[in-house]
Amino acid sequence: MPVTVVKERYPSKVGEVILGAASAQGGTRTSVITVGGDKTLPFLQFEGIAENKPVIAMEVNDIVPPWNDALKANFAGVLDNPAAWARKCVQEFGADLIYLKLIGADPEGVNHSPEDCSRITREVLAAVGVPLIVCGCENAEKDNEVIAAVAESCAGENLLLGLAEQDNYKSIVAAAMVHKHSVIARSPLDINICKQLNILISEMGLPLNRIVIDPMIGGLGFGIEYAYSIMERIRLGSLGNDKMLSMPVICTVGYEANRAKEANVSAEEYPGWGELKDRAALWETLTASAILQAGANILIMRNPAAVKLVQDNIADLMEGN
Amino acid sequence: MIIIGERINGMFTDIGEALRNKDPKPLQFWATKQEEGGAHYLDVNSGPAIPTGERPEAYKWMVQVIQEVSDLPLTLDSTNYNAIEEGLKLCKRPAMINSVPVERAKIERVFAMAIQYNAQVIGLTMDNKGIPKDAENRVAFALELVAAADEFGLYMEDLFIDPLILPCNVAQEHAPEVLEALRQIKTLADPAPRTVLGLSNVSQKSPDRRLINRTYLAMAMACGLDAAIMDANDDALIDVAATCEILLNKSVYADSYLKVFRTR
Prior knowledge:
The complex is a heterodimer.
Chain A: E1 16-19, E2 33-36, E3 55-61, H1 69-72, H2 82-91, E4 97-101, H3 114-127, E5 132-135, H4 140-153, E6 160-164, H5 170-179, E7 182-186, H6 191-203, E8 211-214, H7 224-239, E9 250-251, H8 253-257, H9 276-293, E10 298-301, H10 304-317
Parallel strand pairs in A: 3-4, 3-10, 4-5, 5-6, 6-7, 7-8, 9-10
Antiparallel strand pairs in A: 1-2
Chain B: E1 2-9, H1 13-21, H2 24-37, E2 41-45, H3 55-67, E3 74-77, H4 81-90, E4 96-100, H5 104-117, E5 120-124, H6 135-152, E6 159-162, H7 174-185, E7 194-198, H8 209-222, E8 227-230, H9 235-247, H10 257-263
Parallel strand pairs in B: 1-2, 1-8, 2-3, 3-4, 4-5, 5-6, 6-7, 7-8
Helix pairs in contact in B: 1-2, 3-4, 4-5, 5-6, 6-7, 8-9, 9-10
């Protein structure tokens, strides 16, 4: 007996956001990326197409990051050189774009000045042709200075700038508007704040197609299911024509997966867990592949071995398109 | 919640006069004003202002002058299907046909026309003998409309069933029957047909019209009302619709939900 495939019909789709700007648009990127545009739940291509494939942004820091040695070994020789690190991510590991996190700006740490941060960002821009995501050190006051400076010195590049949060969004949104960039709107695993923040940002005049949602996630084993349900609700909202939830979603996979004990302790300490090198890569891979199924459009990742596996996973999932 | 602005109707003095004088301004004024208020569709009804024979020309004119100022889709409201068809030919956006009762000849005319012009249909739960008193017979008519959608290939969500509310000051007993009918109509098919009411009818000639409209809208939405032909410029009524969407968990809550509901 033939089986009738039941298909949902959705009135709307995920909005599209363009990252980066080529020379024709006033930037210097050799490639730009469009994310979003999905017309169905993740990878249900029999119902509607996933307009653009999910992309991977590899993380680069402005100072040597406090990561474990196994992870750092992948970037030996370039960890103190953000431009070289970024180039390696693109040329060797096939990163679609670069996520530059300016943790060195932290006033409690190295305390890079806004000018230092701008210079480093421009160096990374010069080293690679892919679009850039730039985030501060998560000290709100300092980030407002840093991101404003970066936005101005990279005007026209259409960077994806972070982070706009409910208590601190005005300076970064203003900087993005004036200097033609896009912003990441971050909410703490809370769909209502997520929507409200998007409303507040759009009320300032930034078009919806220049906002990307960071719903915050948990890593595998650390609350990933909460992230999954929030992201599913965001996707259903966008497909149901809720314009204030219709933006593409970015997820900090590398950060969350690598916070887990499972991605850090050695096999000597936990013999039953197997080698750290493989275990850590799989921890990040599984966090990423689960979050892809929840509707992530941009994955921020660290481990090149995980990046490779997730690239293959994405290629397989997009085959039905 | 789909809000269909009711104001462009020849029953209102200003619109009736505008139709007789071919003055586009009042129609255009209300098209813009209702859109600002929160309307998603504009109902267009010449009313008795235009003699039957002249209605096809009148509907063409109305559609044209409204589309000059508004991009909203139109709900062409008439018992004269030739007039509706003339209007449909000019609609820039898929329109809604308002309405068809459960009478075979009219069903054949309207559903075929809906398919031809990619229009949605409002079906009334009545026949030539009138409006049923109870929910059960309303639902029986609704089922015939659902069958007609199937027969003519109209997508079920493009069928809007109107279980017909009557003024509560003269036909109070209908109000709970309509609510029950709404509940049952949503179970007739999967995907379900959609539902609509001419909301303002419930408060005809009552002194507290707006309060009655607002209260009944909340009650009807809780029973499955998807759309209403209503006063799109009663701010509190729009607020009720927005709040019901939140309380029915149809829209995600945000502190500014009232404002967002209007900007959609």
